[in-house]
Amino acid sequence: MRRFLINVVVILLAQQFSAAAAFMDETCELNREMEQQCRSYTYSVVKPMLDYLHQVSEELQESKSKDEIIKDLREKLAQQEINEALINEMRSQIDFQKRIDSLTKSNKKCKAELASKSAELDRLNVEMKKLSSSLLDKDKEIVKINISNSGVTIRADL
């Protein structure tokens, strides 16, 4: 009896499995048809979204490219501003050096003039001393002449 029950249960289970398999075949066939219908519908719905995503992706890539170009241009501009500042500083230094050179040249010219004037002054001092000495000698002569003339005049008066 037990064996009979087990056989019945096994037979019932086998029928269930075969019915389920048949249902699965029908379901798979229905699924394939549904899938075909869904594909065309899904494609028509998803295609614009995919196109939009592709467009956004391209715009994003283009934006990144432009951002990179802008970054490079800003770096070049900053470097150019630094270079211009350095050029202006160098021009200032060159102008300052020219002023120093001009003042140095003027200073040398003044020193040369001063040396010339100093030599002229020394020469004039020597000449003045000679003239002063000569004048003193003349004064002494005049005094001697005056004394001699005064002595002559005194004798003549006598």
UniProtKB/TrEMBL annotation:
Record's keyword terms, sorted: Coiled coil, Signal
Coiled coil: 70-141
Signal peptide residue numbers: 1-20
Superkingdom per UniProt: Eukaryota
Full protein name: Uncharacterized protein LOC127565590 isoform X3
Gene from which the chain derives: LOC127565590
